């Protein structure tokens, strides 16, 4: 039996009272937010109407969100649920959230996208309130989104909360009476949990375990549990609460990746390059070997970026990164250190000619035409080279000298490989 749609006023009243933030986008601008969403960032709904979709997104997350929004509108397969960070209106506080985004819909000739944003701290605050008010166990079991579970001494589930279906995909009836070990990614983890609880005096906090969702995908749960004991103290099972921390794990993994990777191209960033170059120098020094640092600067990129815009420029940089990755060996260290500058570290070079060949291969890869907006675009590259230990004993100096050689190559006509020369570059 179908039901008529809610009147607009009733629908807005529902959205205004749900605990998650709600946002509706049109033409990459906000056309609706509920009070929860506005309060999350310290604004009012009226403040946010008309704002750009990424105005409150932390700078380091904006490109990811923009890219996924663009691809979703284009009909591509992209994740419909992922973490990122918002910036509070005070400019200081960060809010870690999970975005769940809906399928774009056409309304009055406009494409609109509906999304919900969950504050990852909301659950903890809810649990704290529950504890402070000393609600009884049944109310907690029925109300919290975490999994409450109880097993007997053999590890068979005797009680589980309804939220197990939302998290693991199994209805409670499919979990009751089965060994808890059946749901671990590694069934031996059940023995590890028991050993940990015993070693920590009968209780454990924030124990991380990998579980298997009914669909087969892996989830991470953080568990607080304790031994249940009979009247005379003997252990009769385990009772605990397990929280889905998959989103947090995903966020941590993404933050770790961003710490060492250039978010635009996925190549190593400057910080990762410094570590890799330092380690390469240590290896070369230990085995009395040589290495070369190739400093690459694109010729003509600024003009193309100014003419076609930053979005197309970013696309071009990603294409350049892919070509460079194919042009160097898997054992070489490739990084983007900013703008249109890239660095390659080549270990185990025995002669100058070998480095020259690497540089020539890089220039050849960049000189092949690119396609941008249906047009053939031509770029070039100038490569400056400094070698260890001939030119400098440390990574910082090698980069500086390779950069100096590259700029001399620019002055000499571009599109060439130039080795550092103390008489010409200092």
Automatic annotation (TrEMBL):
Stretches assigned to the PAS domain: 29-76, 133-214
The PAC domain, residue ranges: 205-257
Signal peptide stretch: none
SUPFAM superfamilies xref list: Nucleotide cyclase, PYP-like sensor domain (PAS domain)
Domain of life: Bacteria
Organism of origin: Roseospirillum parvum
Pfam families in UniProt: GGDEF (PF00990), PAS_4 (PF08448), PAS_9 (PF13426)
Name this protein carries in UniProt: PAS domain S-box-containing protein/diguanylate cyclase (GGDEF) domain-containing protein
Alphabetized InterPro entries for the sequence: Biofilm_reg_signaling (IPR052155), GGDEF_dom (IPR000160), Nucleotide_cyclase (IPR029787), PAC (IPR001610), PAS (IPR000014), PAS-assoc_C (IPR000700), PAS-like_dom_sf (IPR035965), PAS_4 (IPR013656)
Ranges of residues in domain GGDEF: 289-422
GO molecular function, a single term: catalytic activity
């Amino acid at each position: 039996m179908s039901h008529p749609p809610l009147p607009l006023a009733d629908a807005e009243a529902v959205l205004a009272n749900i605990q998650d933030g709600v946002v509706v986008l049109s033409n990459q601008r906000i056309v609706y937010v509920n009070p929860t969403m506005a309060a999350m960032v310290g604004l009012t709904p009226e403040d946010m109407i008309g704002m750009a979709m990424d105005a409150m997104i932390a700078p380091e997350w904006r490109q990811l969100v923009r890219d996924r929004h663009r691809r979703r509108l284009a009909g591509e397969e992209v994740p419909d649920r992922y973490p990122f960070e918002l910036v509070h209106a005070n400019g200081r506080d960060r809010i870690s959230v999970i975005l769940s985004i809906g399928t774009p819909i056409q309304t009055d000739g406009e494409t609109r996208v509906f999304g919900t944003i969950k504050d990852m701290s909301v659950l903890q605050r809810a649990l704290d309130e529950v504890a402070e008010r000393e609600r009884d166990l049944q109310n907690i079991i029925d109300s919290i989104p975490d999994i409450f579970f109880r097993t007997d001494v053999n590890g068979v589930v005797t009680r589980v909360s309804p939220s197990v279906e939302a998290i693991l995909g199994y209805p409670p009836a499919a979990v009751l009476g089965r060994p808890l070990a059946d749901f671990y990614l590694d069934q031996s983890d059940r023995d590890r949990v028991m050993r940990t609880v015993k070693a920590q005096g009968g209780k454990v906090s924030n124990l991380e375990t990998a579980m298997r969702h009914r669909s087969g995908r892996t989830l991470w749960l953080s568990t607080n549990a304790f031994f249940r004991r009979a009247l005379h103290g003997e252990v009769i099972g385990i009772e605990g609460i397990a929280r889905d921390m998959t989103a947090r794990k995903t966020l941590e993994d993404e933050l770790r990746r961003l710490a060492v990777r250039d978010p635009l191209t996925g190549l190593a960033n400057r910080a990762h390059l410094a570590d890799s170059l330092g380690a390469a120098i240590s290896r070369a020094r230990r085995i009395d070997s040589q290495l070369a640092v190739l400093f690459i600067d694109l010729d003509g990129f600024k003009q193309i970026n100014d003419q076609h815009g930053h979005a197309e420029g970013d696309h071009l940089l990603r294409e350049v990164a892919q070509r460079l990755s194919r042009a160097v060996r898997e054992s070489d260290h490739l990084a983007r250190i900013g703008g249109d500058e890239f660095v390659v570290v080549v270990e185990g070079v025995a002669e100058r000619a070998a480095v020259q060949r690497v540089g020539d291969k890089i220039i050849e890869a960049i000189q092949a035409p690119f396609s941008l907006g249906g047009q053939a675009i031509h770029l070039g590259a100038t490569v400056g080279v400094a070698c260890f230990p001939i030119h400098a004993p440390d990574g910082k100096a090698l980069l500086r000298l390779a950069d100096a050689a590259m700029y001399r190559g620019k002055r000499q006509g571009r599109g060439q490989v130039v080795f550092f020369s103390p008489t010409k570059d200092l």
